[in-house]
Amino acid sequence: MYTLLSGLYKYVFQKDEYCILILGLDNAGKTTFLEQSKTRFNKHYRGMSLSKITTTVGLNIGTVDVGKTRLMFWDLGGQEELQSLWDKYYAECHGVIYVIDSTDEERLSESKRAFEKMVTSEALEGVPILVLANKQDVETCLSIPDIKTAFSDCTSKIGRRDCLTQACSALTGKGVNEGIEWMVKCVVRNLHRPPRQRDIT
Ligand code: G3D
């Protein structure tokens, strides 16, 4: 009887919460992606103007509810001196969204190095990774095949985990829903990192 009632309580009053890190170099569009996601998924969220967002310094936190699943986003700063803090969050997280600026060919190899370091971290083993090729609204941007080629020597380091490269524009919203929905599916099926239970507020 107790099990039945606690199951019912959980079903009605609680959500499964997963922590998702948003990583990538500064200026890649991490904060814009977070704001766009909140605006799209949270019915009553009155977001800030996306074009007024400035680069992440420190940390932005936000939640997005997708049905009975809650994603708690941690948008970490991408400046070189802040990248050394990323791994402090790896053990706690359930998924990573790695944002690439598809218009910045000059910094692509820098982004690849940061990605490579992140993906080879033991503390992230088995954690799903969504790679967002952002700013695809800009006509002159790099295509997905261009980006995959630039990142090709990371492929073998990704290991046995879910990983998807998604074309995206955080500014217009293109690809945002698809990315979030893919991440939800992956974190829910990854039994190695179970969710936290949170009361619905
Ligand atoms: P960050 O959090 O990764 O540092 P921001 O990046 O979200 O602050 O975005 C950095 C700049 O890129 C911002 O422009 C923002 O408007 C722009 N940006 C983010 N996503 C997109 C996108 O999908 N398309 C285009 N065209 N621009 C984008 P400013 O001018 O404020 O620096």
The H-and-E topology, N to C, reads as HEHEEHEHEHHEHE
What form results from the Cα inertia axes?
Answer: globular
The profile of the biggest β sheet is: 7 strands, mixed
Number of strands: 7
Number of domains: 1
Just give the CATH class. Alpha Beta
- By oligomeric state, this entry counts as single chain
From the N-terminal CA to the C-terminal CA, the straight-line distance is 26 Å
* Average of per-residue pLDDT values: 89
Would you mind describing this structure in some detail?
- The mean pLDDT is 89.
- This protein has one domain (15-191): 3-Layer(aba) Sandwich (Rossmann fold).
- Helix 4 (108-119) links the parallel strand 4 (95-101) and strand 5 (129-134).
- The protein contains 7 helices and 7 strands; from the N terminus they run αβαββαβαβααβαβ.
- Strands 1, 2, 3, 4, 5, 6 and 7 form a 7-stranded mixed beta sheet that branches.
- It has 201 residues and is of the alpha/beta class.
- The two termini are 26 Å apart.
- Guanosine-3'-monophosphate-5'-diphosphate is lined by residues 24, 26-32, 51, 53-56, 78, 134-135, 137-138, 169-171.
